[in-house]
Design goal:
about 240 residues; alpha+beta; four-stranded mixed β-sheet; 3 helices
């Protein structure tokens, strides 16, 4: 009897842990089903307090997790969460970089995409994801991905913060293992964007914030470097 109770308690605890922590793989390989430009799985359900671990396993690859909206799937939403670009070389890394995002509001679906532009617009290629998308009606993952594939032009390159709408992170991606490179960009302009936690320094010495034209110029250079490195990796 006591053993049965103990096993039941362990099962409940294990189930609770599984509900609180989920993993999404960022990017894949050319020979994988679905190809390079995907999140695996692309759509999940999560409760408040759940930690989603985004694992940058696609090699070579240069990807981001950037919050958007259902109607504008391939542009960063003002006040949205953003991991910044994470570049993984073709020979992979000793320790895979990860980014932890905690769910804070489940009343509406959360939509995200990869804003990398090379060798093609990743979002338009279908590299989008959803948390708590509806199973029926308009706000389904399949409808969101269809919107992304119909997107014309280039994804916006502005950078969100660690704190977004309905989810937040406390730190940027890490660890920065040998060969991995992290890039940040100029912030998305918004007077209503929530503020990030006090430490906005991105791994690798980049910065997600700053003041004045000098910071904007430096951030624009970092964006360019991120795109160039992404092109090199994806074409390698």
């Amino acid at each position: 009897m006591r053993l049965s109770i103990a096993l039941s308690t362990l099962a409940v605890a294990t189930l609770g842990l599984a509900q609180e922590n989920q993993v999404i793989l960022v990017g894949s390989t050319t020979d994988a089903p679905g190809g390079i430009f995907q999140f695996i799985p692309p759509s999940i359900n999560a409760t408040n307090g759940t930690t989603i671990t985004f694992r940058f396993t696609g090699a070579p690859g240069n990807h981001s997790i950037t919050q958007s909206t259902f109607s504008d799937p391939c542009d960063p939403t003002p006040g949205g969460f953003d991991s910044g670009w994470v570049s993984i070389p073709g020979n992979n890394v000793t320790t895979t970089p990860e980014w932890n995002l905690t769910i804070t509001n489940t009343t509406t679906p959360l939509w995200f995409f990869c804003k990398q532009l090379v060798p093609l617009v990743h979002c338009s290629a279908g590299m989008v994801g959803a948390i708590n998308a509806r199973e029926s009606g308009n706000l389904t993952f399949s409808n969101y991905q269809a919107n992304a594939k119909n997107f014309k032009g280039q994804s916006g390159q502005g950078e969100g913060s660690l704190v977004g709408h309905g989810a937040s992170a406390s730190v940027g991606p890490g660890p920065q293992a040998s060969g991995a490179q992290f890039y940040t960009g100029a912030p998305v302009s918004s007077a209503t964007a929530p503020s990030s936690p006090g430490n906005t320094t991105a791994p690798g010495g980049g910065s997600g914030g700053g003041n004045g034209a000098l910071t904007m110029a430096a951030n624009s250079l970092v964006v360019t470097l991120g795109v160039v490195v992404g092109a090199f990796l994806c074409l390698a």
